[in-house]
Amino acid sequence: MKPLNFSYATLLILVAASAFTQSRSLSEEVNLFGSEQAAFNQAMKEVPFGWNEHETTRDPGDLQANVQWLEGSPQRPLLY
């Protein structure tokens, strides 16, 4: 097995560092579908489920809030 070339290893490190820095610098959310997507993203809450559990959530209030928002906004298309 050949050892890695120094220039190849340097290039690999630079690309990885650049990708990491770029992913960490996104401070604002990008809404490709405009204000409707922004409203959707703001209204929807993360609904965590326990490990290997699919029937009960740790916070049913967030799930119910998501359902109520979706039912109250039938004119809005589902973006996801």
Name its key features.
single chain, 80 residues, 3 helices
Shape: elongated
Largest sheet: none
User: How far apart lie the N and C ends?
Assistant: 47 Å
User: How many E strands?
Assistant: 0
Taken together, the total number of domains comes to 1
Mean pLDDT: 75
Which stretches are poorly predicted, pLDDT < 50 over at least 5 residues? none
Q: SSE order, as H and E?
A: HHH
Give the count of helical stretches.
3
- Proportion of residues in β-strands: under 5%
Q: Assign a percent range to the helix content.
A: 40-55%
Q: Work out the radius of gyration.
A: 21 Å
Structural class: mainly alpha
Question: Can you offer a commentary on this structure?
Answer:
- The protein has 80 residues and is mainly α.
- It has one domain (6-72).
- Helices cover 51% and strands 0% of the residues.
- The protein is built from 3 helices and no strands.
- It has helices at residues 6-24, 35-43, 60-72.
- It is elongated.
- It starts with 5 loop residues before the first helix and ends in an 8-residue tail after the last helix.
- 0% of the residues are buried.
Would you kindly provide a brief summary of this structure?
The chain has 3 helices and no strands. With 80 residues, it is mainly α.
